[in-house]
Amino acid sequence: MKDSATTNKALDVSLNSTAFERLIEAVFLSELQQEMWFSRNTVIDILHSTVDAFGYDLVLIHKNTARYVQLKTREIDASTRDWSISRNLENLPGSCVIIIFYKVNQAEQRLELVEFQWLGGNTNDPLPWLGDRSAKHARANAEGVKGERRAHAKVGLAKFEKITTIETLADRLFDHIKEGGQQSESMFSGAPLAVSQ
């Protein structure tokens, strides 16, 4: 039985942002692993980056294929239209960006994944060229100027592909695996990159 004294008072996301991001990631990975297990009769391994230096947050591995994923999250009614993406991914085979749009179902007190935005190519392709716009630092300097982050590109949402199901997203991530477990040959060719300055 739910205790109304504890469930009616929502946690302040701004004070627990890291925990909330981990929650979204956990829900996403659960859905993805279930899709791979039940629909494609296979498993994937999941590795987390321990340093924020190479542009990716997760590595999703299926046998000899690796996907380097920069993961971003946003509430479904947020107005964000530009995203800061690491340029390291432009040279890394298997790299991609996934934006998870979510909502909180207050009646059920559960997090729901609404849709995804995808930026990437086939399993062995690096990220497409991100354009020549540089992202800026979130904080301004003493003069009130936000400096450029030359290792990060400012990418508009129009460059992404809207995806509405975890099934389609799994197709994009592992295009060599079909539903039912059939797969074609794939060659793992990823390697760590030098850190951009």
Description:
- The model is unreliable at 3-7 and 184-197 (pLDDT under 50).
- A hairpin with a 4-residue loop joins strand 5 (95-105) and strand 6 (110-120).
- The strands form two sheets. The chain has a six-stranded mixed sheet. Strands 4-8-7 form a three-stranded antiparallel sheet, with no helix packed on it.
- The chain has one domain (12-173).
- The chain is 18% helix and 31% strand.
- The chain is globular.
- With 197 residues, it is an alpha+beta fold.
- It has helices spanning 4-7, 17-40, 166-173; strands at residues 45-48, 58-62, 65-75, 82-86, 95-105, 110-120, 134-136, 148-156, 161-163.
Task: Supply database-style keywords.
9 strands; 3-stranded antiparallel beta sheet; alpha+beta; 197 residues; disordered N terminus; disordered C terminus; globular; 6-stranded mixed beta sheet; 3 helices
| Spatial extent as radius of gyration | 18 Å
Global geometry? globular
Query: What is the count of β-strands?
Result: 9
> Mean of residue pLDDT?
84
Largest sheet: 6 strands, mixed
Q: How far apart, in Å, are the first and last alpha carbons?
A: 53 Å
Structural class: alpha+beta
Order of helices and strands: HHEEEEEEEEEH
Biggest sheet strand order reads 1-2-3-5-6-9
Low-confidence stretches: 3-7, 184-197
* Share in β-strands: 25-35%
* Fraction of residues in helix: 10-25%
Number of helices: 3
How many structurally independent domains? 1
List the quaternary state of the chains: single chain
